[in-house]
Amino acid sequence: MIKLRSIEKSYRHGLSQTFVLRRVNVEIQQGEFVSIMGPSGAGKSTLLHIMGMHDSAWTGEYWLFDEPVHRLSAKDRMRLQKQHVGFVFQSYHLLDNLTVYENIDLPLSYRDVKKSERQGMVADILDRFNIVGKKDLYPNQLSGGQQQLVAIARAVVAKPNLILADEPTGNLHSDQGREIMELFKRLNDAGTTVIQVTHSEVNAGYGRRVIKLKDGWVVEE
User: Fold this and answer.
1) Which among 207, 196, 165, 161 is positioned nearest to 64, based on CA atoms?
2) What is the rounded distance in angstroms from the CA atom of residue 150 to the CA atom of residue 133?
3) N or C: which end of the chain has fewer CB within 10 A?
4) Residue 191: count of CB within 10 angstroms of its CB
5) Which run of H or E residues covers position 180?
């Protein structure tokens, strides 16, 4: 599903060059639940954003479902992202001026899904996540755990093959965090590939495999 070959990311400061990722070679199969771990500054989130195609300033080869991301135009990368990827951020990234319903509907509107179909898909997700009663509320009317639940609902409403989650429980208390991780586990059991960045050994335990980074290098798998 994912093949990364010699992925490198760096920044230039005058004549010097600082590497964030160095020669990363990783393969992830469809249906896996993978955790990326390592100390702060190891390059974890950078790697996740490359896989999510939010970052295009890198070198190397990235294959997603046999498509060469490294060779694609920005337009084709966006198409591939919309088709396959759902992203969950630590800080939720909900739009404050939209209701819960409208936030969840947003990615479907980008995919040219008919309005009648969108209504059914959003209604199904609201019911599945047990947040029907919150659909007309705005993000600032929700708790942190509820906002993250909505963010995950938004990420999965279009039924992506791949969920990328960047410290998805970092701003939540332990009970809320456990609820979110159980939800990821259920999504993975249903066939969705999940890749999370986490500092938590407990959260990593929900997956089947850990990739450890240090100073931009993969040091353990």
Assistant:
1) 161
2) 12
3) C
4) 10
5) helix 174-189
Q: What is the mean pLDDT of residues 151-163?
A: 93
Question: Which domains are present in the chain?
Answer: 2-220 (3.40.50.300)
Copy the structure tokens of residue 121. 């898909």
pLDDT at 187: 92
DSSP string computed for 51-115: HTTS----EEEEEETTEEGGGS-HHHHHHHHHHHEEEE-TT----TTS-HHHHHHHHHHHTT--H
Between CA 84 and CA 158 the distance in angstroms is: 9
The mean per-residue pLDDT over the stretch 82-87 comes to: 92
For the segment 100-115, what is each residue's pLDDT rounded down to a tens digit?
999 999 989 877 788 8
Pairing assessment for the beta strands 16-28 and 2-13 based on DSSP bridges: antiparallel
Query: What pLDDT is attached to residue 62?
Result: 98
Q: How far is CA 38 from the centre of its chain?
A: 17
